[in-house]
Amino acid sequence: MISDTILNVVDLHKKYGDSIALDGVSFRVRKGETKVIIGPNGSGKTTLLKCLNLLVKPDKGRIWLGNIEITDPRININKIRRKIGFVFQDFNLFHHLTVLNNVMIGLVKVRKLKKHQAYKKAVDALSTVGLDNTLYHKYPAQLSGGQKQRVAIARALAMDPVIMLYDEPTSSLDPQFVNEVLQVIRKLAKNGVTSIIVTHQIDFALEIADEIIVMHKGRIIESGRPTELLSNPQNILTKKILIRNFRTLR
Amino acid sequence: MNYISLIEYLPYIFEGLLWSLALVLGGLGIGFTIGLPIGTMITYSDKYTKFILNVYIWIFRSTPLIVLLFLFYWGVFPNIGLKLSPLITSIIVLGLRSGAYQSEIFRGALESIDEGQILAAYSLGMSKIQAIISITIPQALRISIPSLSNEYAILLKDSAICFTIGVLEVLTRARIVSIATGIALIPYLIAGIILMMMTYIGLKFFHTVYKKTVIPGLIEGI
Question: What ipTM is given for this predicted complex?
Answer without folding.
Answer: 0.93
